[in-house]
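Hi L.,

You mentioned the student needs an example of a multi-chain input paired with its predicted structure. This one should do, with 829 residues in total across all chains.
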Amino acid sequence: MPIDILMPALSPTMEQGKLSKWLKAEGDTVKAGDIIAEIETDKATMEVEAVDEGILAKILIADGTENVAVNTPIGVIAAEGEDVSAASKPAAAKPAEKPVEPETKAEPAPVASAPPSVPAQAKSYDASSEFPAGAEVATMTVREALRDAMAEEMRRDGDVFVMGEEVAEYQGAYKVTQGLLQEFGAKRVIDTPITEHGFAGIGVGAALTGLKPIVEFMTFNFAMQAIDQIINSAAKTLYMSGGQMGCPIVFRGPNGAAARVGAQHSHDYAAWYSNVPGLKVVMPYSASDAKGLLKSAIRDPNPVIFLENEILYGRTFEVPKSDDFLVPIGKAKIVRPGTDVTIVSFGIGMTYALGAAEALAKEGIEAEVIDLRTIRPMDIETVIASVQKTNRCVAVEEGFPQSGVTAEIGMRIMEAAFDYLDAPVARVTGKDVPMPYAANLEKLALPNIGEVVAAAKAVCYR
Amino acid sequence: MAVAARKTKAPAQSKAAAKTATKTGSAKTGADKGASKALSNMPTFDKAEELHAYREMLLIRRFEEKAGQMYGMGLIGGFCHLYIGQEAVVIGMQMASKDGDQVITGYRDHGHMLACGMESRGVMAELTGRQGGYSRGKGGSMHMFSREKNFYGGHGIVGAQVSLGTGLGFANWYRNDGRVSFAYFGDGAANQGQVYESFNMAQLWKLPVVYVIENNRYAMGTSVSRASAQTDFSRRGLSFGIPGEQVDGMDVRAVRAAAERAIEHARSGQGPYILEMQTYRYRGHSMSDPAKYRSKDEVQRMREEHDPIEQVRGRLTRDFKVSEDELKAIDAKVREIVNDAAEFATHDPEPDVSELWTDITLETARA
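Structure written out for the whole complex:
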């Protein structure tokens, strides 16, 4: 019975990859465990092992094919003399490794599909209004934009260095620091042991002397081990020293839910850090904001919490080609003008906000969408000005509802623009439960476009 | 049992020396040298050094006594942890330091600040929460800093200063500027996890840090033997290959000699070094501690037989024939400084209310 070789996933968030090389040819004999092909994503390269012994009877996806969806059959292993003519039609192939939805495995086209919980990129997003006049524009992923931001700032200032787990030789657990070791060397791109509390403290100590560390956490979930140093040492020392001891440090890494990684790897800490005076908290959505804000964060004389998102790392956006492109910390941006309702969000929450705005437009509701970008200090003025125009607001975040960022937004609007409101401010948040693992439950736990649309209609009384 | 070993001076000395000689691995060279030195002849001070140590330790003692009084008068609020009894540790360390070396410690920090050359007035005014305090009244007893004097605090979270101090060492390594960081912590903090995370990275990267464990035998009210599986703190870096020694922390000469070995090791690029200073605090953990976990006799015996200041005073009169009048003159001068600081700290105004909203974040420079 021929066995399909399926395009494997390298990570919970991988949707597609490149089949870079076949190491075996059709007709070669393979044993279980033999390396038969190499696949790569923008994040990593991996070898594909044969799952059974036999003959590599058929190669279904050629060397160098890009955008091969996970679980697409890429080849067929057959026993000696077995007829594989049937197997050469991928649509008839049966899954060999893991159970998948029938329609997924029957889908032979190398086309990526978005993971179910997070909407695909909104078409209406345009960041170019802030780009320097006349600057050339490149299309790049958030991941590349973050890397470029660090590289440019490290070229500019010898006091800037990056430290964290797997940032150097491994090229970054999520490949955000790719290439930095090669350019800047081991003294400025430092692999640490797995000791978040310790290396966060070392980074803060170095920053107190005036160095400008970028401390990468593999995820902010692990920064819980280090939160004492972040808050008690980094955030408070300037005040406690009467202004003597600044702490120019950036703590960055992926934050919030990725996909199917369960409660301990899915926590969104935006609300936590935004509660602390002395910190700045940044959470970009687009690649240009990621780059411009990270550069601002590195140059900032204060501790900055820079919250990234694993799912957004692979999204592509237009970014101006300029070493001097900075996005100021503390400035929100109207990314879609509208008149009927204000939808305010940040980070990956923007995917729901923008998706909802597109859906609402089809029903004749023009939403004004605001990307907060910085959680602390919060540019509530931009939100208030919008609410004064639309008289309605929906705030969206992936974090938990109680004491969340959207709770803060709602309160601030009530304080400053109560008389302008035609409806109570509504919020759409992650559900008040630890993140479940099961795909269906995870999807329920996160916000979705439908919830944002429903909330927007509710505040519009429609 | 640590108490028993302290009954006479001699056993404590030889214990320290014996430990020094049993160091393993990379500790061997430096520590052995120290051991033979310690065994053959106790490091000595000349008259000027004795006088310096006497004056400096006395300043801390009198300052802390005054702080205790002012706390009792309600002029100092919150927590106030006095350094009385431990003066030889920080003074001996500073006598071996060079300009530019950094100091960081926990919340029992007044002595370290004075030893770093910070002004008595500024420290006392911070204790009273006045505008002339080193943190303009916004830090208090546990949170004071001086960038000018390379004093990095003053930290209220037990053990946090160990990672931070390692970070100071990291900065010295990064800049290759020949500085050494001294990270002070107590026998209590020595049980914190981040201490060992820091030890690991400091030795891995050969950072110039001297870890000074001030073992005063009690972590608040818990004696070392009730909290620590390994009560020989000089061995706490052994599994990382960090050399360590136990030092008679009541003898300023022994402290300076050990400090010289440790600092030389760190400054020469060989990485961190651990000094366990065997010391004793006479007062409670903080002002509100009645110290019921130890006997009055124990405290009394330490004061009578091992007091760091009395030891120097004895040598000054006995070996250097310094007259009582000369010593009284020093004492008077020290009291004058302390009284002046107390006077200043009592009458200096509280910070302006506008200070509530300053120093939260620094202004972002225009790019």
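You could point out the following to them. The beta strands of chain B are 102-105, 151-154, 181-186, 209-215, 218-219, 222-223, 244-248, 273-278. Residues 1-40 of chain B have pLDDT under 50 and may be disordered.

Best wishes,
N.
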